[in-house]
Amino acid sequence: MATQDAPTNLAELTTLLEDATKVKVAVDGVFRGKYMSKDKFLSAVKGGGFGFCSVIFGWDIHDTVYPKELLISNRGNGYRDLLAMIDLSTYRRIPWEKDVPFFLVTFLDPDTKEPICVCPRGTLKKTVSKLAERGWDAMAGVEYEYFQFKENAHSVAEKKFTGLEALTPGMHGYSLLRTTLNKDYFNDLFDECLKFGVQIESHHTETGPGVFETALAYTSALRIADNASLFKLAAKSIGMQYGIIPSFMAKPYANLPGTSGHIHVSLRTDEGKNVFGLSDAEVEAGGRKDAQYDETKFISQEAEWFLAGLLEGLPDVVPTLVPTINGYKRLVGGESFWAPNAVTYGYDSRAASIRIISPPSVSPSATRFE
To answer: Which of 116, 224, 289, 310 has the highest CB neighbour number within 10 Å of its CB?
Structure first.
């Protein structure tokens, strides 16, 4: 799904950038990017992309090259350039950077012009294309929980990243009062993200010192993947203006629950029907008669198969979902810290790894997995 006012061709793009002198382009994931002059940017669009150093896939978040180098990025190939293709459908402006135009890029192999396997945007596009061949579209939403500290880049370094001051003390989930303590920052997170093309469904305090939870609006998988990464960029950028550092790490405190991210997923037909949902008649009749288990009687056969695939693949994708030592510290406490650490599912269960959300708690059209 393209952003609002996204150009579809070079002529529309040139008109759109008429008042701009520079453009910002960025890589998805841990965001890296740069400013480009408008002339260079338009030339790259017209010419089919521009070169970008492959080392961004060959080093970690501290710019240290991996000891075991990748085939795509290594000393042997001189960390050669990859082809960065500008995705015009991702157009937006950055409200906290004087409304500079902003685009995301997807990386291609410069020889084959095919998406490289380590580019998350290219990999997701391949998956979505396979679904489209069946007449389906992947839909998703993302919820973030995150701690916030009254710190800045210099103060956390001086403290060696320990003993940081929480934005607010105590445990105050869903508090209407706590948000008034930092109301300008709290409201700017919502309002500036809307201007940035990252729509938010809900925004509130969560249990923990200085913890917020923000749910991003349900949309196509490609769009929500971009929005999820962009929200973290937005939160950190807005926080800087208030002397606040939002932290999305899983377990900042050893004696408190950590924070997580929740992904809601479903499939939709070309006609807009939820593939996972039952008909109203099936729901009124007490669910699907051929359901294998009682917990799955209010989801479709396709949804039951999808659930089986999730359960089968979950152990293999955990290193991607939990890529840090700190993340595993959150899982140690298990359900006592709201962190399922086994391959489980359950109807409307927040204690399970996969939560089935279906009738009777929601309408058939809202059926999904979390």
So the answer is: 224
